[in-house]
Design goal:
Quinone Oxidoreductase, Chain A, domain 1; binds NADPH dihydro-nicotinamide-adenine-dinucleotide phosphate; 2 domains; 6-stranded parallel β-sheet; single chain; 15 strands; about 30% helix; Rossmann fold; alpha/beta; about 325 residues; Oxidoreductase
């Protein structure tokens, strides 16, 4: 038997609970993994609470990421004993995921864990941190460098935001952190933020073009904040948009795009091609400061996951949560 969070939807409603399950219930896949750590991401919190339409089939084990050790493999690239990490590909949405002591997954979805990381560190990074790296790589691909000017990061006290602040500052950027939690200023400065901006100052509709402040942006919030960020980009600035913590809407004008040549880059981690994933994990091993990663991280047990999911959606969690299996 193995322990897992199981989400069920039936006549009684939508329920998530900690359960003991038979290994025979795992999906039919070519690799089995003993999960050592998973993590709690925004999407997992939506799945567990049922507050967003994340889960595509029931019953579902949530958990969009995992790190662990291969126990059985029919895939040519993996053998028992290999340390692996998995992000996305619909795991925890349409395929049983990482918030479980065992997982059965497709070998093609796995990335070998970089030697620099323990499985715990890999999940302290998790999908949030890997997505932050994808955003940094997108800024670079579109020509942004520390010499271009300031980079703004929204939702900075959260998971994607914290890793983005830490990575960018280590790479030499001057980082402006946007937060709705002024009490986290010293935490954000410890990750390398040079300036803190109150979320409220970007939360209201403004002019189509504002004072040109930022060369680059990592936005996890969407909604009015993303629109305000776009309006305040410098000429030929680059905005990476990966999240919707503030909503799905995008109440913007085309002015920043047609008058300042701003680029809006969408970042998706779920179906991201394998070569880019491998590169993102290589870059994380090279560029992320492990001490800052630890500062961002708190560890919980599987039995704490359900209340923690509610806390995360209420904005009461700082940084990243790793789940020990
Ligand atoms: P967290 O909950 O850890 O962080 C989100 C942060 O956003 C919060 O800490 C808060 O930061 C800010 N925030 C929350 N609610 C609001 C609001 N109503 N208005 C403005 N700001 C708000 O989540 P993650 O970092 O794990 O994920 C962030 C977003 O990125 C989510 O929408 C998630 O779905 C998305 N995401 C997308 C991926 C992709 O592949 N595209 C992959 C990973 C995540 P503060 O208190 O500092 O203001």
């Amino acid at each position: 038997m193995f322990r897992a969070i199981l989400i069920e939807k039936n006549a009684d409603g939508y329920h998530a609970a900690l359960r003991s399950l038979e290994p025979a219930r795992l999906p039919d896949c070519d690799v089995r993994v003993r999960v050592e750590y998973s993590s709690l991401n925004y999407k997992d919190a939506l799945a567990i609470t049922g507050r967003g339409p994340v889960v595509r089939s029931f019953p579902m084990v949530p958990g969009i990421d995992l790190a662990g050790v291969v126990t059985e493999s029919g895939h040519p690239d993996y053998r028992a004993g290999d340390r692996v990490v998995l992000n996305g590909w619909g795991v925890g949405e349409s395929h049983w995921g990482g918030l479980a002591q065992m997982a059965a997954v497709r070998g093609d979805w796995l990335v070998p864990l970089p030697a620099a990381f323990t499985t715990r560190q890999a999940m302290a990074i998790g999908t949030a941190g890997y997505t932050a790296m994808l955003c940094v790589m997108a800024l670079e691909r579109h020509g942004i460098s520390p010499a271009s000017g300031d980079v703004v990061v929204t939702g900075a006290s959260g998971g994607v935001g914290g890793v983005a602040v830490s990575l960018l500052s280590r790479l030499g950027y001057r980082v402006v952190a946007v937060t709705g939690r002024p009490e986290e200023e010293s935490y954000l400065r410890s990750l390398g933020a040079a300036e803190i901006v109150d979320r409220d100052s970007l939360s209201h509709p403004g002019r189509p073009l504002e004072r040109a402040r930022w060369a680059g942006a990592v936005d996890v919030v969407g909604g009015q904040i993303l629109a305000s960020v776009c309006a305040a980009m410098q000429y030929r600035g680059v905005v990476t948009a990966c999240g919707l913590a503030g909503g799905m809407a995008f109440p913007a004008t085309v002015a920043p795009f047609i008058l300042r040549g701003v680029t809006l880059v969408g970042v998706d981690s779920v179906m991201c091609p394998r070569a880019e994933r491998v590169e993102a994990w290589r870059r994380l091993a090279q560029d992320l400061n492990p001490t800052e990663l630890e500062t961002m991280t708190q560890e919980i047990a599987l039995s704490d996951v359900i209340p923690a999911a509610r806390d995360l959606l209420e904005g009461r969690i700082r940084g990243r949560i790793v789940v020990a299996l």
